[in-house]
C-alpha cells in the first residue's frame, strides 16, 4: 500500500515539473527581458522538485524492500509472482517518465524571443501563480504524507514483531503439543507397565511360598510407580493450564493487531481519496495548458494517466491478496488452537483412565500385602525346619559314607586280583605278538641336507604298520609291526618298547637292537642326548621305578657290563686294561650257555650310577670320522643289564637280562671314503653284518645248521636268536635319495627278520632251597658267582665318592651263565651326524 502511495506522489511531481518546463517554453518568446530571472527560478524549482523526487524514490526503494520482506514472511507464491510483475512494471514506467523528461528538454525552443513578443505571457504568469499556490498547498500534505509513511513503517515493524511473536507462539504450541504427546506416551507406558506388573503379581502369588522375600519388593515397586503416575498427571494438568493461558494471550494480541490493521486501512483510504482529488485538479490545470500547448505533451500526459490507472488496479489487487493472506493466517491459528484443545481433551481422558487403573490396583496391593505377611511368618519358622533337615542329611551322609567305605574295600580286593590278571595277559600279549618284533623309524632331514632330500618316503594314514618307498619310478610297500614318522618323539618310541623292558623284571631275557646304515639315526634312538635321552636311559629309569614299587616284597639287584666287537675282537669297555683280549667260551657247568671270561660288571643303584657307567663306556668306545658320518661307530657295542630278584617272604628267585646292542652301521667303501685302518674296520663291520644276514636266512628257512660261528657278533647273539628271549629289532631308515638303495636293503632285511619264529621265551625262576636249586618249568639252573666290590676309577667317573660293586669273573674261579645277549647297535652320530 505504501509503495503505491509513493508512486502516485512521484507521478504528480513529475507532471508538475513537465508543466513548469512547458510554461517556460511558452513564456520565453514573450518575456525576453525576464527570461534570465524566470530560468533561474525555474531551475531552483526543478532542483527542489528533483530533490523531492530523489527522496521519494529512496522511500519507494525502502518500501519495496519492506514489501519484499513481508512477502517472504507471508510466503504466498502467487502473490510474490504478481508483486514481482508490478515491480517490473513500475521500473518500466520510471524509464518511460525519464524518457519523457529528456524529450521535453530536447524539444524546448531556444530563448530567442523576448517576453513582450509572446502572446501567452499572461497565461504563463497565471500558471506560475497557480503552480506556486498548489505547491504551498502540497507542502503540508507532503508533511502529512511523511507522517503517515512513518506511521506505516512503525506499524509494519509492529506487524513484523507480531508475526515473529506469532511464529514463536506456533513453535511454542508445537512444543507443547509434542510434550502432550510425550506425556500421553508416558502415561500409556505407565499404564501398560502397571498392567504387566499386575498380571505378573497375580502369577507370582502361586510361587510366593518359595520366594517370600520378593513380596515386599513388588509392593514397594507398585507404590512407587503409583506416586510417579500421580506426579505425571499433575505435571500434565499444569502444562495444559499454561497452554490455555498462552492461547488466550495470543487471541488478545491477534484482536489488537486486527484493530490496528483496520485503522491503517481507513487512513490509507482517506489519503488515496485526497490524492485522487489533487490529481484531478492538477490534471484540469494541465489540460488548460495542454489545450494551447504541444500535442505530443498531451499524448505523454495521457500515457501517464493510463499508467496511474494501472497502478491503482495493481494496488487494489495487492490489497485483496493481503486480505486473503490475513484471513489464511487467522484460519491456521484457529485450526492449531482447535487441534491443541482436542489433544488436551485426549490427554485428560488418558489421565482419567490412569486414575481408574490405579484405583483397580489398590485391592491387588492389599492382597499382596496379606500374602507377604503369611510368607513372612513362614520365613520365621524356616530356621527350625532347616536345622531338622540338616540333621537328617548328616545321618544319611554318614550311612552313605559307611556303604562307600565297604564298597572301596571290595573294589581294592578286585583291583589286586585284576592287576595279577593284567600282568598275565600282558606277558601273553607280548608272546603272541611274536618273539622278534620289528619296528621302523624314519629320521627327519637335517640342516644342509635339503638339497638332496626329496619326498621319497610316504606313510599310510590309516595303517601305522605300512611304509612306502618310491625308487626308480616304482612304489615299494613294506609291512612291519610299527612305523614311526620323522616327527615321532623319543617318548613315543619308548612307549612301544617299555612292555619288553618290564618283562626283564619278571625273569625274561630281552634283546633290543637297532639296525641300519651309518648316519640313519641308530645311536640317537638308543642313546639320545642329555636333554632327550633314548631307549637305554629310559629303560633303566623304568627298571628303577618298577624295582622301587616292588621294594617292600622283593629285593632286586641290577648289574651292568659293556663290551664291544672291534675288528672281530672282544673288548671290555668297563675294565682297566683295554688291551686285554676277551673270548667267548662255553660255560663249563654243562648248561650249554655262553659267557665271556674276565668281563667287568658294576652294580648300580640309581640312574646317576648308570650315567657314570655310560660315560666310562663311551670314553673307551671306538669311533672315527667318515664321509658319511662325523662320529661313526667303528664297532658293535653291547650293554648287558642283569636284574636278579628275591622275594623276601617266600624266597622265590628270578633273574632276567636286558641286552641293548648298538650295531655299527653298514657302509659302502665308495661312499664312506675309508682308507687304511678305516677300510679294515669297514670290511670287518660289513663281514659281521653279512654273517648276521646268513644267520637270519638260515633261521627263516628252518635249516638244521645255523652258522652262528661265522662271526663274533653272531656267536655272541646266538642265545638271543635261538628262541630263549624276547627280541625287538629297530630298523633305521634315511629319507635321502642318495641313501635310497641302502634303505631298501635295510627294510628288506627287516621283513625277513619279522618272519622268523623262535618259539616262546622262557622265564628264569627258582624256588628257595637250602641245598640245591630246583628250577620250575622251562627254567635253567643258575649258579650266581660272588661279587667283589671294585671302586670305579676316579679318572673315569664323575663322582669320586661313589663306588659301584664290580666282579671280575675268570674261568678258574667262577661259572657264568648267559642265557641270552641283547645287542644295542650304535653309530655315535647323535641322530643327524651332529
Automatic annotation (TrEMBL):
Residues 39-103, 145-274, 304-335 form a coiled coil. Residues 435-756 form the Kinesin motor domain. PROSITE patterns: KINESIN_MOTOR_1, KINESIN_MOTOR_2. ATP binds at residues 516-523. Residues 1-22 form the signal peptide. Residues 795-808 have a biased composition (Low complexity). InterPro entries: Kinesin-like_fam (IPR027640), Kinesin_motor_CS (IPR019821), Kinesin_motor_dom (IPR001752), Kinesin_motor_dom_sf (IPR036961), P-loop_NTPase (IPR027417). One of its GO terms (molecular function) is microtubule motor activity. It is a peripheral membrane protein. Keywords: ATP-binding, Cell junction, Coiled coil, Cytoplasm, Cytoplasmic vesicle, Cytoskeleton, Membrane, Microtubule, Motor protein, Nucleotide-binding, Phosphoprotein, Signal. Residues 764-811 are annotated as: Disordered. Belongs to the TRAFAC class myosin-kinesin ATPase superfamily. Kinesin family. This is Kinesin-like protein. It comes from Hucho hucho (huchen).
Amino acid at each position: 500500500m505504501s509503495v503505491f502511495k509513493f508512486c502516485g506522489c512521484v507521478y504528480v511531481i513529475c507532471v508538475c515539473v513537465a508543466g513548469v518546463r512547458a510554461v517556460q517554453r511558452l513564456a520565453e518568446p514573450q518575456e525576453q527581458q525576464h527570461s534570465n530571472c524566470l530560468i533561474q527560478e525555474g531551475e531552483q524549482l526543478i532542483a527542489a522538485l528533483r530533490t523531492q523526487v530523489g527522496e521519494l524514490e529512496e522511500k519507494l526503494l525502502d518500501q519495496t524492500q519492506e514489501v519484499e520482506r513481508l512477502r517472504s514472511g507471508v510466503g504466498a507464491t502467487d502473490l510474490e509472482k504478481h508483486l514481482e510483475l508490478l515491480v517490473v512494471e513500475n521500473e518500466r514506467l520510471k524509464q518511460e517518465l525519464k524518457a519523457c523528461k529528456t524529450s521535453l528538454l530536447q524539444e524546448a525552443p531556444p530563448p530567442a524571443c523576448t517576453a513582450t513578443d509572446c502572446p501567452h505571457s499572461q497565461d504563463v504568469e497565471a500558471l506560475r501563480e497557480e503552480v506556486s499556490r498548489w505547491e504551498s498547498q502540497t507542502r503540508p500534505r507532503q508533511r502529512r504524507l511523511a507522517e503517515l509513511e512513518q506511521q506505516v513503517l512503525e506499524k509494519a515493524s509492529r506487524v513484523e514483531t507480531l508475526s515473529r511473536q506469532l511464529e514463536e507462539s506456533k513453535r511454542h504450541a508445537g512444543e507443547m503439543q509434542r510434550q502432550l504427546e510425550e506425556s500421553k506416551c508416558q502415561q500409556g507406558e505407565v499404564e501398560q507397565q502397571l498392567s504387566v506388573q499386575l498380571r505378573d503379581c497375580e502369577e507370582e502369588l502361586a510361587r510366593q511360598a518359595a520366594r517370600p522375600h520378593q513380596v515386599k519388593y513388588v509392593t514397594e515397586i507398585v507404590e512407587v510407580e503409583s506416586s510417579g503416575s500421580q506426579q505425571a498427571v499433575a505435571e500434565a494438568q499444569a502444562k495444559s493450564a499454561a497452554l490455555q493461558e498462552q492461547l488466550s494471550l495470543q487471541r488478545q494480541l491477534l484482536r489488537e493487531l486486527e484493530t490496528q490493521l483496520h485503522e491503517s486501512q481507513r487512513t490509507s483510504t482517506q489519503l488515496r481519496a485526497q490524492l485522487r482529488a489533487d490529481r484531478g485538479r492538477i490534471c484540469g490545470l494541465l489540460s488548460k495548458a495542454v489545450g494551447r500547448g504541444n500535442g505530443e505533451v498531451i499524448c505523454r500526459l495521457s500515457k501517464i494517466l493510463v499508467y496511474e490507472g494501472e497502478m491503482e488496479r495493481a494496488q487494489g489487487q495487492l490489497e485483496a491478496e493481503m486480505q486473503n493472506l490475513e484471513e489464511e493466517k487467522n484460519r491456521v491459528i484457529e485450526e492449531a488452537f482447535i487441534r491443541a484443545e482436542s489433544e488436551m481433551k485426549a490427554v485428560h481422558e488418558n489421565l482419567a483412565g490412569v486414575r481408574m487403573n490405579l484405583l483397580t490396583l489398590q485391592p491387588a496391593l492389599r492382597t499382596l500385602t496379606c500374602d507377604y505377611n503369611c510368607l513372612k511368618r513362614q520365613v520365621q519358622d524356616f530356621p527350625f525346619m532347616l536345622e531338622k533337615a540338616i540333621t537328617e542329611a548328616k545321618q544319611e551322609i554318614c550311612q552313605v559314607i559307611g556303604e562307600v567305605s565297604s564298597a572301596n574295600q571290595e573294589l581294592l580286593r578286585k583291583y589286586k586280583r585284576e592287576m595279577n590278571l593284567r600282568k598275565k595277559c600282558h606277558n601273553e600279549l607280548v608272546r603272541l605278538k611274536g618273539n622278534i618284533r620289528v619296528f621302523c623309524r624314519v629320521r627327519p632331514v637335517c640342516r644342509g641336507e635339503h638339497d638332496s632330500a626329496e619326498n621319497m618316503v610316504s606313510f599310510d594314514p590309516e595303517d601305522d604298520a605300512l611304509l612306502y618307498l618310491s625308487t626308480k619310478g616304482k612304489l615299494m610297500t613294506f609291512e612291519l609291526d610299527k612305523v614311526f614318522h620323522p616327527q615321532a618323539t623319543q617318548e613315543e618310541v619308548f612307549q612301544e618298547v617299555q612292555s619288553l623292558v618290564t618283562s626283564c623284571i619278571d625273569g625274561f631275557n630281552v634283546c633290543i637292537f637297532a639296525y641300519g646304515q651309518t648316519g640313519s639315526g641308530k645311536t640317537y634312538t638308543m642313546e639320545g642326548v642329555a636333554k632327550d635321552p633314548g631307549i637305554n636311559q629310559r629303560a633303566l629309569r623304568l627298571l628303577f621305578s618298577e624295582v622301587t614299587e616292588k621294594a617292600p616284597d622283593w629285593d632286586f639287584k641290577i648289574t651292568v657290563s659293556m663290551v664291544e666287537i672291534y675288528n672281530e675282537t672282544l673288548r671290555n669297555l668297563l675294565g682297566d686294561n683295554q688291551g686285554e683280549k676277551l673270548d667267548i667260551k662255553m660255560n663249563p657247568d654243562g648248561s650249554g650257555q655262553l659267557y665271556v671270561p674276565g668281563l667287568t660288571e658294576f652294580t648300580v643303584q640309581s640312574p646317576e650310577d648308570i650315567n657314570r657307567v655310560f660315560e666310562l663306556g663311551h670314553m673307551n668306545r671306538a669311533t672315527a670320522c667318515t664321509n658319511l658320518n662325523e662320529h661313526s661307530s667303528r664297532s658293535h657295542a653291547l650293554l648287558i643289564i642283569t636284574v636278579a630278584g628275591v622275594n623276601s617272604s617266600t624266597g622265590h628267585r628270578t633273574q632276567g637280562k636286558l641286552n641293548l646292542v648298538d650295531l655299527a652301521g653298514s657302509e659302502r667303501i665308495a661312499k664312506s671314503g675309508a682308507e687304511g685302518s678305516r677300510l679294515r674296520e669297514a670290511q670287518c663291520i660289513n663281514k659281521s653284518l653279512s654273517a648276521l644276514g646268513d644267520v637270519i636266512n638260515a633261521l627263516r628257512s628252518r635249516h638244521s645248521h645255523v652258522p652262528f660261528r661265522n662271526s663274533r657278533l653272531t656267536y655272541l647273539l646266538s642265545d638271543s636268536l635261538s628262541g630263549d628271549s624276547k627280541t625287538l629289532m629297530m630298523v633305521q631308515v634315511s629319507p635321502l635319495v642318495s641313501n635310497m638303495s641302502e634303505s631298501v636293503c635295510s627294510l628288506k632285511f627287516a621283513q625277513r627278520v619279522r618272519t622268523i619264529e623262535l618259539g616262546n621265551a622262557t622265564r628264569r625262576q627258582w624256588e628257595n632251597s637250602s641245598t640245591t636249586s630246583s628250577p620250575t618249568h622251562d627254567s635253567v639252573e643258575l649258579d650266581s658267582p660272588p661279587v667283589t666290590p671294585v671302586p670305579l676309577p676316579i679318572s673315569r667317573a664323575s663322582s669320586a665318592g661313589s663306588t659301584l660293586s664290580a666282579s671280575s669273573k675268570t674261568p678258574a674261579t667262577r661259572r657264568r651263565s648267559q642265557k641270552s645277549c641283547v645287542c644295542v647297535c650304535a653309530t655315535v652320530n647323535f641322530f643327524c651326524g651332529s
